[in-house]
Amino acid sequence: MSTHATSLTLLPNFFAGRWQSGTGTGSTLVDPVLGTELVRVGNEGLDLAEGFAFARDQGGQALRAMSYGQRAAMLGAIVKVLQANRDAYYDIATRNAGTTTKDSAVDIDGGIFTLGYYARQGEALGEAHLLLDGERIRMGKDPAFQTQHVLTPTRGVALFINAFNFPAWGLWEKAAPALLSGVPVIVKPATATAWLTQRMVADVVEAGVVPAGALSVICGSSAGLMDQLQPFDVVSFTGSADTARIIRSHPAVAQRSVRCNIEADSLNSALLDPSATEGSEAFHLLVSEVVREMTVKSGQKCTAIRRVFVPRALYQAAAQAIGAKLANTTVGNPRNEAVRMGALVSRAQYEGVLAGLAQLKTEAEVLFDGSRVPLVDADPAVAACVAPTLLGTPKPVDARVLHEVEVFGPVATLMPYDSEAQAYELIRRGEGSLVVSVYSADPAFIARAAAELGDSHGRVHAISPDVAASQTGHGNVMPMSLHGGPGRAGGGEELGGLRALAFYHRRSAVQASAAALDALAAGGAPCAW
Ligand code: NAP
What we know:
The chain is α/β, with parallel strands linked by helices and 529 residues long. The protein contains 14 helices and 22 strands. Helix 2 packs antiparallel against helix 5 and helix 9 (281-295) packs across helix 10. The chain has helices spanning 48-65, 68-84, 86-97, 101-123, 169-181, 194-207, 241-248, 251-254, 281-295, 315-326, 347-361, 420-428, 443-453, 514-522, and strands at residues 13-15, 18-20, 27-30, 37-41, 130-138, 145-153, 158-161, 185-188, 215-217, 234-238, 259-263, 268-272, 305-311, 365-369, 389-392, 411-417, 433-439, 457-463, 482-483, 494-495, 505-513, 524-526. The chain folds into two domains: 51-264 and 493-524, Aldehyde Dehydrogenase, Chain A, domain 1 (3-Layer(aba) Sandwich); 269-479, 3-Layer(aba) Sandwich (Aldehyde Dehydrogenase, Chain A, domain 2). The site of NADP nicotinamide-adenine-dinucleotide phosphate has 24 residues, from helix 7. NADP nicotinamide-adenine-dinucleotide phosphate is lined by residues 161-166, 188, 190-191, 222, 238-240, 243, 246, 263-266, 302, 406, 408, 434, 490.
């Protein structure tokens, strides 16, 4: 990103209840296909303390005065605003993210769908202002004195530091549970694709459907944001493991106990049943899903399949089948209707993917190389387009880099295994991932794999022939299911239906008389998760 194009529009930040432009030149956002400069973002000169205090005090108070049902209705109103402006979002996505219409939908419509889901779930909580966690428990012989666990919305602000790959969904999948909980949001989108986030917030603010201070956006540098956090604030970070380390060790988290959710990188796996054959449906389901995962959003999904495990006898057959399907992927300018896969978000990411590929190749052979075919409508010297590459190694046990390095692009590595136990051991070398998908017609194998891999994965996605048409996709994050993963995936938890509200609430035990607990329960809704 260059910093010289001062004639470009500088997008204002909505902060401290008003639109404010940074005073510096900011950073320039670029079309990753054409290389043209689009807009600038920056927040130099903004009074961060004022913006955080405004959100915490005014936004928080207004949101907490509303019931869950009223806040759910507010989410419904946001959905309507976003739906009315969808065309503008698709246009920004094409220009700033280089995505095809189908790939833009994953982000834009995925975000709107998630908001709509929480609007419906929240409605059921009705007029309550707190959540009742479990049943009352007797504290002793006398049943008059009992304890009731309750969840109350935290009186702080939720800071979201987001990744570049989901400027729309990344905002709303976090904002929906936060706002439903009654917690104001300040979002700092990743600079490379900040425009879409900024525009969506602008539309919602202009429509007047959220109270003052409930939703703020600050684009550009992250400097100083973490310093603003106070004990009842929460921070949700999505991005690389390196930045996650900085967030985790910041005094706000390490000393002031600011609650912190981290979604970091992940070497997700696909596993084919040991009894599968080349002609089996499970084999074909794996092949299709791997190709889809490698190419959707040009592989820039934290949940994308990076490692593919098949029985050793099927290594060559899987390589051929995946390669044959990948050969149909036309890569280039998403404005051309013949193009199936657009660009990475920036030339910096392009360089990063090429460097990562070179690293993986030190331990793997190339099984399919899409770069032999020229790009459609795009200049390879300018466009951040990378063709799909399938790598493979017959010796996954000896590999180290292949289990460690996440290449954030259309790249996956095929690996054969010799026994079921070895497959599990190899998958666990990812040291904690967001998702593993299992391909099998055998319910007993699926159940075994789920039990074996559950502790090292946030989600186990099993694809069997009977759900081939209805399964929601390995990499698709659905709001009713948990998203997040242990270990290197960050250790975070998001979504999972109303479970997501827990992050924005504090749990306390109220020990009191039955009469007092009755009065408390009158303002609460049971949280049945
Ligand atoms: P990144 O470089 O770590 O950036 C993420 C965010 O952190 C950006 O908003 C960035 O701002 C900000 N940031 C950078 N340095 C910071 C600092 N010192 N203090 C506070 N904030 C800072 O990650 P990325 O390259 O955007 O995202 C790609 C990675 O995200 C991949 O590894 C992917 O696996 C992961 N990801 C995970 C999930 C998930 O749900 N698990 C989802 C999506 C992506 P600037 O943009 O201004 O630098």
